[in-house]
Specification:
- The structure is a single chain.
- This protein has 15 helices and 13 strands.
- It is of the alpha/beta class and 347 residues long.
- It folds into two domains: 154 residues, Periplasmic binding protein-like II (D-Maltodextrin-Binding Protein, domain 2); 146 residues, Glycine betaine-binding periplasmic protein, domain 2 (D-Maltodextrin-Binding Protein, domain 2, 3-Layer(aba) Sandwich), CATH 3.40.190.
- Strands 2, 4, 5, 6, 9, 10 and 13 form a seven-stranded mixed β-sheet that branches.
Length: 347
C-alpha cells in the first residue's frame, strides 16, 4: 500500500511538472488516442502456473505481451495441476501456459473440456520425456530397455535405499507423469523390482545428480526442455531406455508407437506440444489476447537455457522477470510483429 501511495504521489508530481511545460496539442491528442486504442484497456488478465519455475518464465513473457496490448495483468498465482484447469473453467482465472497436449487431456476433459476451455497456440512445439540411466551402467550391463529391470539383479544396480528394488526417480504426486509412470510399472511387470520415488521433482533431480557425481548408478524420469538435459547430456552421461511397447493411461490411449518414439527409440511417453489453455468466454471477449496466445512461441533451446539459469541460482521472481525481458529484447522484431498482429484482431 505504501508503494502504491508513493507511486500515486510520484505520478501526480510528474503530471504537475508536465503541466508546466509546453506540449504540442496534436502530440497530446495522439498519445491519448493511442492509449485508448489499446485493445486490452480496462481489462484485467489473470493467470496461474504450477511450482515448476520454468512455467513462471513462460507466463512472464506472455503477460508482458498482454501488458503491451493494454491489459492490466494480475500477479500470476502458483497452483498445481489439476486445480489450475478447474479455476480457469470456473472463471476464477483466465489462462495458463501449462497445457501439455496429451498428458493433460484428462485434466482438460474433467474440468469441462471444450465447453468451458480452449487450448490455443503452440508455446513450445516439442516436449520429450522418458526414462534415462547413466551411460556407464548401460554400456557395462547392456541395458537398453526398461523391461530388463524385471531381472532382480539388474534392478539392484539402481537400488539407492537398500531394499533390493531399483529406485526410479519420478514426479510430483498428482502430475500426469506420475500417473504414467505408475501405469508403466504395472503393464511392464516392474512392480516387484522397481520402486517409484515420488516428491518434488527438482529436489529429486538434485539428489540424482549428486549420486551421479559420486559415480553411483541412476535411473530417473527425464523431461526436456529442462536443465537436466544440459547437465546430464544424452549419449555422454546418460542414455534413453526404450519400453517394450506403447501403453499409456486411459486418457492418452490414442497415442501410437510413432507418437512415443524419438530417433527410432520407443520412449514410452508421447511427444507433445505445450499450449496455452484459456477460459472460452475470456477468449471470445478478448480477440486481441486470443490472437496473442496463438502467436507467441519459444524454442526448446530457449527453455533449456532458462531452466539452467534457474538451476544455477537465478530463480527469484525478479530474476525470471528480467530473463523474460531479455528474451523479448533478443527476439524484439518478432515480438513486436506479434503485438501488432494481435492489435489488428479487434478490427
Amino acid at each position: 500500500m505504501k508503494q502504491i501511495t508513493f507511486s500515486i504521489v510520484l505520478a501526480s508530481f510528474l503530471v504537475s511538472m508536465s503541466a508546466c511545460q509546453t506540449t504540442p496539442p496534436a502530440t497530446t491528442e495522439s498519445t491519448k488516442n493511442t492509449q485508448a486504442a489499446l485493445p486490452g484497456k480496462g481489462v484485467t488478465a489473470r493467470s496461474a502456473h504450477s511450482n515448476w519455475t520454468e512455467e513462471h518464465f513462460q507466463t512472464e513473457i506472455v503477460n508482458i505481451g498482454l501488458e503491451k496490448l493494454g491489459y492490466q495483468v494480475a500477479k500470476p498465482q502458483e497452483i498445481d495441476y489439476p486445480a489450475i484447469y478447474l479455476a480457469i473453467a470456473n472463471g476464477d482465472l483466465d489462462y495458463s501456459t501449462i497445457n501439455y497436449e496429451r498428458a493433460h487431456m484428462g485434466f482438460f476433459e474433467n474440468s469441462g473440456g471444450e465447453a468451458k476451455l480452449e487450448r490455443i497456440g503452440v508455446l513450445n512445439p516439442q516436449t520429450v520425456s522418458g526414462y534415462q540411466i547413466n551411460k556407464k551402467a548401460a554400456d557395462k550391463h547392456q541395458i537398453t530397455n526398461i523391461e530388463q529391470l524385471k531381472d532382480p539383479k539388474i534392478a539392484q544396480l539402481f537400488d539407492s535405499d537398500g531394499d533390493g528394488k531399483a529406485n526410479l526417480v519420478g514426479c510430483n504426486p498428482g502430475w500426469a507423469c506420475e500417473l504414467s509412470i505408475e501405469h508403466h510399472l504395472e503393464v511392464y511387470g516392474l512392480q516387484d523390482t522397481v520402486e517409484h520415488d515420488k516428491g518434488q521433482y527438482i529436489a529429486l533431480l538434485a539428489d540424482t545428480i549428486t549420486r551421479y557425481q559420486q559415480e553411483e548408478n541412476i535411473l530417473f524420469y527425464a523431461y526436456n526442455p529442462h536443465w537436466i538435459s544440459t547437465v546430464l547430456k544424452v549419449d555422454e552421461d546418460v542414455v534413453w531406455l526404450e519400453v517394450p511397447f506403447t501403453s499409456l493411461p486411459e486418457d492418452q490411449q490414442k497415442a501410437t508407437e510413432k507418437d512415443t518414439s524419438l530417433d527410432g527409440k520407443n520412449l514410452g511417453f508421447a511427444q507433445q506440444k505445450q499450449r496455452i489453455v484459456a477460459n472460452k468466454e475470456f477468449l471470445v471477449a478478448n480477440p486481441a489476447a486470443k490472437r496473442w496466445f496463438e502467436l507467441v512461441t519459444m524454442t526448446t533451446e530457449d527453455m533449456n537455457q532458462e531452466s539452467l539459469r534457474i538451476k544455477e541460482g537465478e530463480g527469484s521472481p525478479q530474476d525470471i522477470r528480467r530473463h523474460a525481458e531479455e528474451w523479448i529484447e533478443q527476439n524484439q522484431e518478432l515480438f513486436d510483429s506479434w503485438i501488432e498482429e494481435a492489435k489488428e484482431a479487434v478490427h
